[in-house]
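To illustrate the input format used throughout this study, we show a single complete record. The first block contains the structure-token representation of the backbone; no residue identities are included at this stage. The design step must infer an amino acid for every position from geometry alone.
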């Protein structure tokens, strides 16, 4: 019997193996690196096996024995988590660890209400919220670092990922209140093409926004890029250029206090689908299923936590003429 090992030590070893770094594993679990190192030492001593090769400035590499041991550790931890389901089903409770991944541009708006609201409704649930870009979230699902992701339908055609769309978010334009375009109710991509654009430079998001221009037969004039939605909004609010977005925060000011204005896009453009992603072969624990049900109840075309009027831009655009008939110019 492995009486001298704890599930916590096994969890720390697994995190170190998945991240290939003591520091990154410690950051993920929110503990000190020394705790991760101590757990690795304890497991290696107990099993009389070397799990990792330590390489200075290059992190950790698994030994052949370490690969096999970590596979078994993952199975052991998964089986341990199933104990919560057995107890929950007999007592009609929702409890246990829940790891929720959220697409970074969405996290500040929707994750607190969904995750913390769920934690308040189910005090026995231990909710961990993790932000990442879309590809990072998919990789975390595959590595069992998160149970479910709140994200867009960007490149979710992989055979091992299940995606359920909950809301459709069409693209629109954001400009500074001092921009002449702020007086317009609607504009087109053709009218925007020669204006300076601020591009959200995240993997897949970048490709989505650029594809809108390609489909319209024009190319944008990119003046600046940022991976941060807050930085992007500040650049727009300070008159550097316009940007495209799919989410409408309830506040219309940037972090430096300057006001932003939303303008609808003429024509029909592919919206981003906001929804849930999870691993197809994953057996969802009851706490995960309960959280997903909460998301289904809270997110729809008519309402998204932290956002205002998610369907408005789409209704205006659909009522307008197709973009190739657009004669209104914003310049």
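Output of the design step:
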């Amino acid at each position: 019997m492995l009486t001298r090992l704890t599930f916590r030590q096994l969890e720390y070893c697994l995190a170190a193996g998945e991240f290939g770094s003591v520091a990154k594993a410690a950051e993920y679990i929110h503990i000190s690196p020394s705790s991760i190192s101590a757990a690795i030492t304890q497991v290696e001593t107990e099993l009389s096996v070397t799990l990792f090769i330590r390489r200075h400035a290059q992190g950790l590499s698994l030994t052949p024995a370490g690969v096999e041991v970590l596979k078994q550790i993952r199975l052991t931890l998964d089986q341990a988590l199933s104990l919560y389901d057995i107890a929950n089903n007999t007592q009609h409770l929702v409890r246990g660890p829940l790891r929720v991944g959220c697409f970074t541009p969405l996290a500040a708006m929707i994750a607190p209400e969904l995750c913390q609201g769920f934690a308040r409704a189910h005090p026995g649930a231990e909710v961990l919220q993790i932000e990442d870009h879309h590809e990072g979230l998919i990789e975390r699902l595959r590595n069992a670092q998160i149970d479910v992701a709140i994200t867009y339908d960007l490149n979710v055609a992989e055979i091992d990922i299940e995606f359920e769309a909950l809301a459709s978010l069409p693209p629109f334009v954001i400009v500074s209140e001092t921009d002449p375009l702020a007086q317009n109710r609607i504009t087109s991509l053709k009218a925007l093409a020669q204006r300076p654009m601020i591009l959200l430079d995240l993997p897949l998001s970048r490709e989505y926004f650029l594809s809108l221009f390609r489909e319209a037969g024009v190319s944008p004039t990119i003046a600046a890029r940022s991976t941060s939605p807050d930085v992007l909004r500040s650049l727009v609010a300070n008159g550097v250029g316009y940007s495209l977005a799919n989410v409408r925060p309830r506040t219309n000011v940037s972090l430096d206090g300057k006001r932003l204005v939303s303008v609808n896009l003429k024509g029909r453009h592919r919206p981003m689908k906001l929804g849930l992603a999870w691993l197809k072969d994953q057996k969802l624990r009851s706490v995960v299923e309960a959280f997903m049900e909460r998301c289904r109840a809270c997110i729809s075309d008519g309402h998204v936590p932290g956002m205002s009027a998610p369907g408005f831009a789409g209704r205006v655009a659909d009522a307008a003429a197709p973009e190739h008939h657009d004669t209104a110019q914003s310049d």
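Structural context for interpreting the output: The CA atoms of residues 148 and 278 lie 5 Å apart. DSSP finds eleven helices and 13 strands in the chain.
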